[in-house]
Amino acid sequence: MRTLQLTLEEAIVICKALSNEHRMNILEILTSGPLNVNDLAEMMDLPFSTTAVNIKKLEDAGLISTEQVPGRGMQKVSSKRYDQIIIKLRKETHSEENVISIDMPIGEYTDCEVEPTCGLVSDTDFLGVLDDPRTFYETDRKNAELIWFRSGFIEYRFPNRVPDDSKCDQIEIMAELCSEAPYHKFDWPSDITVWVNGIEIGTWTCPGDFGGERGNFTPEWWLTENTQFGLLKTWTINKKGSFVDGVRLSDVTLMELSLHSKPYISIKFGVKKDALNSGGMNLFGHRFGNHEQGILLKIFHSSKI
């Protein structure tokens, strides 16, 4: 399921785009699959111009994407980008001084084990040899801005900066990622698993591999038919369990992660060889995709006293 998670400020733009019956109907119709403007206008019994204006408003809000596809010549086809929208109505209760944020470049991984198809690219060119796992151990891997593999894992180790007189209350892991299909394919599910300190916290099924429309930070040299952007997901682990975008993944809690016993926090993303949906994984950095970040770890802590 493709989810859009919003702050209150971000929700204002989206709510304006949704405050129209025609635009809501367009999103509902696109649930069954991509359509061009003529088809949508006919199904809704609306003039072409009215339909086109409403599609443009949904595009501007980022709720649908449009790409050129072969038909009678080339035609523009619109697709719905999200299945649900989550608006956070409550602000974080921790003060900034009690939140440690670390943005890890995606090329700074400490371990990996990947199988083709696989590769790395910087913001200017390919790195190493495509579909050769040995490339993942080259020294220039630190310049990677897009990483992909069919199965296996990639691991990051973050410094454990929780003060000695404090206890960790919650950790959040944010990353932009998607499945790995040939070129791109919206319907290409993949079961992506996350481990923290070697403990499996759960698996999220990504619906597809997204392309055809350039990502906000994807460089111009990268062809639009290739993977362009992913979904920004947030994994949360606290005393109640493990969650992705607020949806429970498992009963694994902070206590089981033994955060106090190591000088680092290990975060591992992977696709198991025996996954039900073995659709690979793309991981986006600061200069690829729709979000200017790498792997963002937030540690929420409070005094032990």
UniProtKB/TrEMBL annotation:
Residues 3-97 form the HTH arsR-type domain. GO terms for molecular function: DNA binding; DNA-binding transcription factor activity. InterPro entries: ArsR-like_HTH, HTH_ArsR_DNA-bd_dom, Metal_resp_trans_reg, WH-like_DNA-bd_sf, WH_DNA-bd_sf. It comes from Mesobacillus foraminis. The keyword DNA-binding applies. Keywords: DNA-binding, Transcription, Transcription regulation. PANTHER family: ARSENICAL RESISTANCE OPERON REPRESSOR ARSR-RELATED. Signal peptide: none annotated. This is Putative transcriptional regulator.
